[in-house]
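Here is the promised in-class demo. Please do not try to memorize the tokens; focus on the logic of going from shape to residues.
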């Protein structure tokens, strides 16, 4: 089930920190694999209705976007900013779908990797949202790189956990710099690198 497993690889978002500087315990949107159970082959389809209106689907800059009209507009704005990041071009192939969800997390193991985005992330600002996309994309990149090298499902530590978060946070800062994000955002993400403990918060308890 998506809600129980987390898939992160490499992105360039808060290094996808989904959490924002305005939400103290948030910084990256990433799900943690808490068991050694095999990754489910099938992920349930999202509900047809979102809190903001009917779920729609759009294709923009080679990404499939699923969510309300407001969510789609916000996602397009974030992707426009990422068009100015050379770093993001490396990560972009590892995200196929950007989907409105209750919480943020990267579903990297599916045929079309999905970045699920919670309200606190996509409603914050285009700059913060862009960084989060990059962050989680980095998690996905790590997942797929490890899977290709091992020729099997990679262990959780290959793309999640403290060291993975640090790498994603560094990437996030780089992308935020390239898109000329506000300085306080970069300062906030930098402050999380030494102790990115947010990833230890159970997925069900996250508010970003």
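The designed amino acids, position by position:
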């Amino acid at each position: 089930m998506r809600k129980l497993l987390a898939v992160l690889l490499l992105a360039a978002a808060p290094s996808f920190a989904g959490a924002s500087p305005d939400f103290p315990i948030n910084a990256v949107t990433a799900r943690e694999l808490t068991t050694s159970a095999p990754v489910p082959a099938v992920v349930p389809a999202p509900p047809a209705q979102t809190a903001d209106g009917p779920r729609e689907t759009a294709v923009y800059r080679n990404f499939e976007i699923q969510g309300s009209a407001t969510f789609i507009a916000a996602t397009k704005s974030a992707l426009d900013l990422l068009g100015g990041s050379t770093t993001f071009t490396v990560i972009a192939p590892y995200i196929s779908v950007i989907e409105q969800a209750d919480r943020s997390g990267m579903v990297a193991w599916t045929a079309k990797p999905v970045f699920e985005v919670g309200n606190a992330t996509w409603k914050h600002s285009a700059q913060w949202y862009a960084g989060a996309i990059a962050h989680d994309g980095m998690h996905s990149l790590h997942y797929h790189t490890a899977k290709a090298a091992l020729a099997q499902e990679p262990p959780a530590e290959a793309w999640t956990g403290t060291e993975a978060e640090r790498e994603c946070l560094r990437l996030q800062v780089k992308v935020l710099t390239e898109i000329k994000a506000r300085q306080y955002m970069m300062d906030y993400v930098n402050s999380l690198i030494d102790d990115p403990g947010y990833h230890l918060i159970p997925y069900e308890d996250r508010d970003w």
